Amino acid sequence: MNVAICEYGAGNVRSVTLAFERLGARIVDDVRAADLAVLPGVGAARAAMDGLRASGHDAALRERMAAGKPVLGICLGLQLALEHTEEDGGVEGLGLLPGRAHRLREGRVPRMGWADVEGRGAFYFAHSYAADTPCATAWSEGVVAEARHGSFVGVQFHPEKSGAAGARFLEAECLSLA
Amino acid sequence: MPLPRLIPCLDVAGGRVVKGVKFQGLRDVGDPIELGAAYSDAGADELVFLDVKATVDERQTLVELVRGVAGRLAIPFTVGGGVRSVADADALLEAGADKVGVNSAALARPELVTELASRLGSQAVVVAIDAEGGKVRSHAGTTATGRDAAEWAREAEARGAGEILLTSIDADGTRAGYDLALTATVADAVDVPVIASGGAGNARHVADALGVAQAALLASILHEHPARLVTLRTELRDLGVNVRWS
After folding, report:
1. I want to staple B5 with a disulfide (CB 3.0 to 4.6 A). Which of A156, B20, B164, B215 is the partner?
2. Domain residues of chain A, as ranges?
3. pLDDT band with cut points at 50, 70 and 90 for residue B57
């Protein structure tokens, strides 16, 4: 299967690439044509959104959604896919799914480390903002861990950094597309 | 709250993993790529890689080592040592690091923390603090700064640090236990996670550190037997510490 990873000048593209290569996926450049497009997520919201616009990935991702083609958002990638995030004084998102990202207000922030995702075991999280969306499909300690809407799936945790549990998650997502 | 983390730390010099006592007498303890992979396989929650010499002419060697280690890991990977600019940090992230650690350069020019956080996001910026008697020392412990560790941690947090990696020089490599008083003081001063470092000798030491910090750095007690991480995890659970069951 072909996987395109959106590069927008920030983000742990290499980690995500390695994770998909371990599963036998072929990494391609064409975000529109790939079997799966991945919006990775490390960085700050405003710079990332500017990078998505400058690279044209914003339009490509919207086209994929309109055509029902799968998109996977990871961490900041999930937050940017929402309509809005509070980060950096407020940034408009891609609007691939309804909802907004809010700053975490409890515990130590960034929320950093391995935390249980209900019924699925522990995954690695590193975030200061979290999604508030009607599309949530899994939670971790009251935080939205996964959201699904149409052909979009977004996760707040980092499957590419979550060892065997993360690899199993990515493999299941890939298999569901095959 | 996420689970308390166990983080093996590879001190690297000249392309090899080294370890000293109180930052002195570095000896060779292995190959970074092999050790990194062994720790990942043994269930490490994260991995930290510190270039303890951090000479400018060795930068490319470090970046290539990071590339090699990252290729074998599916856990978070922090790299520090000699990071002086956003460009240095970008090169490490491009090679596969997830977070960068900054120490001396941030003390010399605190704006570096702000620049890194706005470019990489706070979650990727770890400010490493080496302290002796509660006071910060720079340049691998060789230079006194006169700054109070808790006060510097607070400033680093205000500037966008996402984590504080606190090493007690007094405890480093002694295997006599973490500096709990120092760690508690710094952890109370900030709202970001704190990684306790220096002094782990047994599971009780690590359990005590995880009582005041969110993660414990491990070096001396692991390097000769990376599989020790597996038994350490079991011992910690027996002591009532809810570490990840990988």
Report:
1. B215
2. 2-177
3. low
A108–B193 CB contact, under 8 Å: yes
Burial A27-55 (b: 16+ CB within 10 A, else e): bbeebeebbbbbbbbbbbbebbbebbeee
Nearest residue in chain B measured CA to CA from A75: B123
Q: According to DSSP H, which parts of chain B are helical?
A: 32-41, 59-70, 86-94, 104-108, 111-120, 149-158, 180-189, 203-212, 220-223, 228-238
**Partner-chain contact B5 A114, CB within 8 Å:** yes
Q: Which domains does chain B show, CATH number per domain?
A: 5-238 (3.20.20.70)
Within 10 angstroms of residue A134's Cβ, the number of other Cβ atoms is 9
- The share of chain B scoring above pLDDT 70, in percent, equals 98
φ/ψ of residue B178, rounded to 5: -70, 160
| Residue whose structure tokens are 């009251």 | A142
Cβ pair A124, A113 in contact under 8 A:
yes
Contacts of B66 (CB under 8 A, 6+ apart): B49, B77, B79, B92, B95, B96, B97
Q: Taking the C-alpha atoms of A24, A29, A35 and A37 in order, what is their torsion angle to the nearest 10 degrees?
A: 100
The helix-helix angle for B59-70 and A13-22 (nearest 10°) equals 40
H or E stretch covering B135: strand B135-138
Nearest CA in chain B to A46: B118
Which strands form A36-39's sheet, in the order they lie side by side?
A26-28, A2-5, A36-39, A71-74, A152-155, A143-149, A136-140
Residue A29 φ then ψ, to 5°:
-90, -30
B60: three-class secondary structure by DSSP: helix
Instruction: Specify the amino acid at residue A51.
Output: G
Residue-wise pLDDT for A130-158, tens only, equals 999 999 999 999 999 999 999 999 999 99
- Residues within 8 A of A (CB atoms), B 109-148 only: 117-124
Contact A114 B191 (CB under 8 A): no
Closest CA to B200 of B192, B208, B211, B212: B208
Protein fold of A2-177: Rossmann fold (3.40.50)
Q: What is the pLDDT of residue B56?
A: 66
Q: Quick one: which of A87, A61, A59, A77 has its CA closest to A146?
A: A77
Residue A59 reports pLDDT greater than 80:
yes
